[in-house]
Inverse folding.
């Protein structure tokens, strides 16, 4: 447990708090995070921002509008995010779920076509403040390169590995995931920049 938690501490010391998930001023956090979690599938956040701004301009960043809006109009609004045909349908079904049920559980989200484990856990953690650690390709890359996990590991196995190794704390879950993403985008990229890696140096001192 201490080794994984130390990775978190080193990342936090270097980068500081990330305070994810970013939400536009005046917008409902649950709605924007949930919508953003769907839109960010297979695209960059800059593209998601364009789609979110389109929805805000159309006064449609709310579940009621997303249910009622014409499907083709919605597709056009979220077009910058790519895969807009499927994402538009997913957003409509997701909105129906939120409008029909007060307490959303993981199985409810996974029952929506177009929502997998990573997207579901992003919504649960960042929108609904529930303790589900988000494990993505960045998480797998980091811990594989550090020698903590095997290359072929399932989503659930990796999630359990991390949550069993750190305190069950929503704020830590949020910050740790956000810090891993930042670190892997800047240093532990697909072609790693090992020469500038502060983490490996500091970690060796600890272990």
């Amino acid at each position: 447990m201490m080794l994984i938690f130390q990775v978190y501490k080193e990342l936090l010391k270097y980068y500081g708090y990330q305070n994810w998930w970013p939400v536009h001023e005046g917008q409902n956090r649950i709605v924007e995070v949930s919508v953003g979690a769907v839109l960010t599938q297979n695209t960059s956040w800059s593209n998601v921002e364009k789609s979110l701004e389109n929805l805000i301009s159309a006064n449609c960043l709310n579940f009621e509008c997303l249910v009622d809006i014409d499907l083709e109009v919605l597709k056009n609004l979220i077009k910058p995010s790519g895969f807009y045909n499927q994402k538009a349908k997913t957003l409509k079904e997701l909105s129906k779920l939120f409008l029909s049920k007060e307490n959303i559980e993981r199985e409810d989200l996974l029952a929506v076509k177009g929502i997998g484990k990573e997207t579901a856990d992003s919504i649960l953690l960042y929108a609904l403040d529930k303790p589900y650690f988000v494990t993505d390709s960045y998480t797998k890359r980091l811990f594989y390169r550090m020698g903590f996990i095997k290359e072929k590991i399932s989503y659930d196995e990796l999630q359990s590995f991390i949550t069993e190794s750190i305190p069950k704390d929503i704020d830590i879950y949020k910050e740790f995931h956000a810090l891993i993403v930042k670190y892997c985008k800047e240093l532990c990229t697909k072609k790693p920049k090992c020469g500038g890696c502060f983490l490996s140096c500091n970690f060796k001192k600890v272990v």
Remarks:
- The chain has two domains: 2-20+134-206, 29-127.
- Residues 124 and 130 are 5 Å apart (CA to CA).
- The longest helix spans residues 84-100.
- The mean pLDDT is 93.
